[in-house]
Specification:
transmembrane; Growth Hormone, Chain: A; 2 domains; Proton-linked_MCT; mainly alpha; MFS; 516 residues
Length: 516
């Protein structure tokens, strides 16, 4: 899904005429302004994903302020995290119609508004609407364009650029945890959220940096890819987008004729209204509005065609059993990573370790080591003698083991060691696009990866409230981690079983063919 929109751009004009002429490489592709796009995406990850990973600080304040159950209070954080990822398909329509820059700027304003309105919350359900939904939708409107723009500006160095930008999540979790804790101590949680809302307005600046590529630049980008024999992987990633684009060009012809007809009618009406100047002025103003609305409707219609083809043209993916197992895994996996960020601060408080945790929070340990985990696991998986799939599975086994053993640790040192392992093993997120490509192929990579991201969003939505509800019943967080760990293990088992079944099927078919 992401790659398909990365290669589409913003303008819906016909590229065929431009593509027939020799074009020079755009200096902003893999260089120049492209690095400003990386900086923008890096800051977006700090302000959005980093602040979401630090919500455990505010979760404790909400529990004390509103005196509600942990399961109900956890919905505030989980709604914000889950909606950010789940709304991806809808935000894709906004990008197709308005472009990444406008979508991100509107999202930055909406996110800041959600933080500021939450400062006046009178109950938890008020936070559901202001912080969970409003700030969550705003986060999604900025997060997706940040990912899309990096892919659009980079071809040869796309993996490096995406890796650098996503490290902002780890840095952000570390910085935002310290910032929110300081603000809550000095000013109280309400003023802290108000200040954080003002800080979040910087997302509008990040959105303003997302300068769109012109149609000529987009064609130049594809022309360079075709002429460069060493860029096979980048060409394969944009293959699905080319298919969608070819379908779009076929559908654009009647739409262009319709737009041209509308303009001819409007122009003819303009020429007939040559009467008085005042009358002509009123008619011209009305015709201008009518013409603007007509052009907007055509643009929305074209954007919807692109969006629909991109997201709903991938039904065949669900016939792949391994990919379905991968979706089931994603539904359980991400919550196991999110739950510690939400509930660890309160666990530390129950174990009377607040003084040590204030010096160096456990969530900050996860965040910092998570950065190194992404880089190191990526380097290991790139070795020719190492299977990316095996590295991915080993990291998952390490993470689920840490989740299951974390309740047994009741000292700061032991918890710090487990949290460091959680941060390192969760670095497998950088391997997810590679594993997805191995499962479905390069042609369907974009749509398949988008589906996995939505599944992660669902996991983040229901994981923390489930852990809170279990605590409300048992009055212990132990069972929350045990149950989430066991569900995570079920997802891993699905990943292990399906490849074995897939390998047996061709053998059985070949044996049947031999018998015939």
């Amino acid at each position: 899904m992401y790659a398909s929109r990365e290669d589409m751009g913003y303008d819906f004009g016909d590229d065929s005429k431009v593509g027939s002429k020799p074009v020079k490489p755009n200096p902003n592709i893999d260089g120049g302004w492209a690095w400003m796009i990386v900086l923008s995406s890096f800051l977006v990850h700090i302000l959005i994903m980093g602040s979401q990973m630090a919500l455990g600080i505010l979760n404790m304040e909400w529990l004390e302020e509103f005196n509600q159950s942990r399961g109900l209070t956890a919905w505030v954080s989980s709604l914000s995290m889950g909606i950010t990822l789940i709304v991806g398909p809808v935000i894709g329509l906004c990008i197709s119609v308005c472009g990444c820059r406008r979508t991100a700027i509107i999202g930055g304003i909406l996110n800041a508004l959600g933080w500021i309105l939450s400062a006046y919350a009178s109950n938890v359900r008020y936070l559901f609407l202001t912080f969970g939904v409003t700030a969550g939708v705003g986060s999604g409107m900025v997060y997706l364009p940040a990912v899309v723009m990096v892919g659009q500006y980079f071809q040869k160095r796309r993996a490096l650029a995406q890796g650098l930008s996503t490290t902002g999540t780890g840095f952000g979790a570390f910085l935002m945890t310290a910032l929110l804790k300081y603000l809550c101590i000095e000013f109280g949680w309400r003023n802290a959220m108000f200040i954080q809302g003002a800080v979040s307005l910087n997302l509008c600046v990040c959105g303003a940096l997302m300068r769109p590529l012109s149609p000529k630049d987009m064609v130049s980008e594809k022309h360079v890819l075709r002429s460069n024999s060493e860029d096979n992987q980048a060409k394969a990633l944009s293959h699905s987008a080319e298919t969608i684009k070819s379908n779009r060009v076929l559908r654009e012809e009647p739409e262009k004729k319709e737009a041209a007809t509308n303009e001819e009618v409007l122009d003819s009406v303009q020429h007939t209204e040559v009467g008085g100047k005042s009358r002509r002025g009123r008619n011209m103003y009305g015709l201008h509005i009518l013409k603007t609305v007509s052009q907007l409707m055509v643009r929305v219609r074209k954007g919807f065609v692109i969006w629909y083809s991109s997201y709903f043209g991938a039904a065949s993916l669900f016939t792949n059993r391994i990919f379905v197992a991968f979706i089931i895994w994603a539904l359980f996996a991400y919550s196991s990573f999110v739950i510690p960020f939400i509930h660890l601060p309160e666990i530390v408080k129950q174990y009377n370790l607040s003084s040590q945790n204030n010096l160096f929070p456990l969530t900050s340990i996860i965040a910092i080591v998570h950065i190194f985990g992404k880089v190191i696991l990526g380097m290991i998986s790139d070795l020719p003698c190492i299977s990316t799939w095996n590295v991915f599975l080993m990291a998952n086994f390490t993470l689920v083991t840490c989740i299951l053993t974390l309740p047994l640790m009741q000292t700061y040192v032991s918890l710090a060691v487990v949290c460091a392992l959680i941060g390192f093993s969760s670095g497998y997120f950088s391997l997810m696009p590679v594993v997805t490509e191995d499962l479905v192929g390069t042609k369907d990579l974009a749509n398949a990866y988008g589906i996995i991201i939505c599944a992660n969003g669902i996991s983040a939505l229901f994981g923390p409230p489930l852990a809170g509800w279990i605590y409300d019943i048992t009055h212990k967080y132990d069972f929350s981690f045990y149950i989430s760990g066991l569900l995570y293990m079920v997802g891993i088992i699905f990943l292990l079983i399906q490849p074995c079944i897939q390998k047996k099927l061709p053998r059985e078919k070949s044996m049947e063919g031999a018998q015939v």
